[in-house]
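Lab notebook, bench 4. Still working through the backlog of constructs that have no structural model yet. Next entry is a single chain of 305 residues. Request: give me the structure tokens for it.
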Amino acid sequence: MKKVVISLAIALLSFSAMAQDDQKVAVFDPSGSVDNSVKEIVREVISSVIVNTGGYSVLERQLIDRVLAESRFQAGGLVDDAQVVEMGKLMGANLAFVTSITAMGSNFFISGKLIDVQTARIERQRTTQTQRGQNDMIDVVQKLVREMFADAPRPAQPTRQQSSPARETTVLPVAGILIADGRNVHQYSKKLTQHEVRHLMVNTDAIRIYNNGISRNRNGNIIIYSGLGLAVVGGMLTAANEQEYGRYGFIVGGAMITTGIIMKSSSKKLVSQSVDMYNRGLEKSAGMELDFGITGNGVGLVLRF
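Model written out:
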């Protein structure tokens, strides 16, 4: 399995801080046999229009590309609506925007499709065209997207069960693919606590590497702050005409800060390695294969025997 390096914290948690009414939109790379530069322009124009439309936010491109790479899909190859819905759910999106561009003669024919990830229903679909090499392509695409979002209904939201304030139950995660982003670990679009990660890895070799990564990050922070303290003392000594001791404080403090940064950087690699090891163990466990597929409750992860 490819090394899982997503982080879902980069996008999913930042979006949760926005207004609750905001709908998260996954904008995929356009499909079609045209130059990548054309696809890039169209995708960026679509994203900019959606970002500036009230009530909607766009998932970061880095997040989308990483999920697609881990799921063995290519961003420009998602032409099947079922795949779009499947990937949208993994990203925590409410809506998916899919575009296709076809070059015919001197024209570009552009088709946009807005899919509700929860219901797998196509909410809006529009087609437009523009002459190749003309500067009005941006205006044409902007108009198409604005029309699609002008009267687009709010997608259906999954119902949430309200827990009684008198009794709260802590639900620990069950076995499933983990996604690493730096020192953060996610599962099914949820950021896991260190306790939850250790709960999943407790009987695997991955927990030793994970604990080492977390410990190295903590020690790195201590060393960095200590180095900053020495540097400050060095500055104070220099100001008091104690240049020799001040220089010593700067040198030692700088060395400690550098060491702490290196330790923190290596801690990210260790967490990523532990997640990769854990995921490989899932695939080999009991001769089962973990894959994406259709379950009785919809699209999700499937264990094949």
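Notes after review: Helices lie at 8-16, 36-51, 61-70, 81-91, 137-150, 194-201, 206-239, 243-284. DSSP finds eight helices and ten strands in the chain. Flag for follow-up if needed.
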